[in-house]
Amino acid sequence: MKASLRIGTRGSQLALWQARWVQAAIMRQQPDVEVDLVIIKTQGDKILDVPLAQVGGKGLFVKEIEEALLDGRIDLAVHSMKDMPAELPEGLTICAIPKRENPLDALISVRYNSIDHLPEGARVGTSSLRRSAQLKHLRPDLVIVPLRGNLDTRLKKLETTDLDAIVLAAAGLMRLGLGHRITAYLTDEQMLPAVGQGALCIETRDADPEVQSIIESLDDPGTRTAVMAERAFLKRLEGGCQVPIAGHAKAVGATVSLCGLVADLDGRTIIKNTMTGQVERADRLGRSLGEDLLKRGAGPILEGLQQDG
User: Fold this and answer.
1) Are residues 262 and 298 in contact, defined by beta-carbon separation less than 8 angstroms?
2) pLDDT of res. 51
3) Tens digits of residue pLDDT in 24-39
4) Residue 238: DSSP 8-state
5) What CATH number should be reported for the domain holding residue 129?
6) Are residues 281 and 235 in the same domain?
7) Environment class of residue 114 by beta-carbon count within 10 Å: exposed (0-12), middle (13-18) or buried (19+)?
8) In terms of domains, do 128 and 36 share one?
9) Catalytically annotated residues
10) Eight-class DSSP state of 183
11) What pTM was computed for the model?
């Protein structure tokens, strides 16, 4: 048994919370193992004044950490699952996906208590094309304002700028004890979440069974089934942060239900459907839903956005 483990993580408040949660879970099960955090700065942490879609989308918050994992500087990595590209580098695997936190998006506002109560022309901050497209579809009158920075920075901008509301992932707020800041949860119908939203990804090397034997116990089968269906859907569409794609699955008993969405940037066209399948065929379900949306017209939208990018 290894005497020590090194967890690679970003240095943001939320990333550190997630890594410390995994650290504590390992130490409860393996009290004789020393577990240290190694903070790694990613490209996404360095570029804060440009929208994510313009600087490469998915992978911006994981690439440097995965490189450290591959070359042995760390033994495992903890990521937000929604930051993970559909394809992993050769030699790495998703070893465990712990039980998911609330996957929904949340509206935060000082003056208004719901999306419906925002006045015409209200200014809403978000850094996500997925959120922006769905907000525009719900309320074409809203003015979407680009919003980058860590969670604390974005909350402060709501108070110090002329924003009427911001939209953030509920999971991050709840993990940091900021659930009281949530004005309203946005339902699946109003705002379909990002693939993997609310879930953690614990990544290890393929050829490291000793570490995997320690980490595998943190896996939650229901969450893994749902997230793998979502990721198969994302992979089939070859999507990233530069494309408004959303997907949310729920595993109940022997079945899994997956809702997926592709939108154009202005939210005028949204292609959306839900499919249900057997838990053991979650990957196939994700691919099938991706194929279905492509047949419904998602292909030209995705091609146009990728050409623009």
Assistant:
1) yes
2) 57
3) 999 999 999 999 999 9
4) T
5) 3.40.190.10
6) yes
7) middle
8) no
9) 83
10) -
11) 0.93
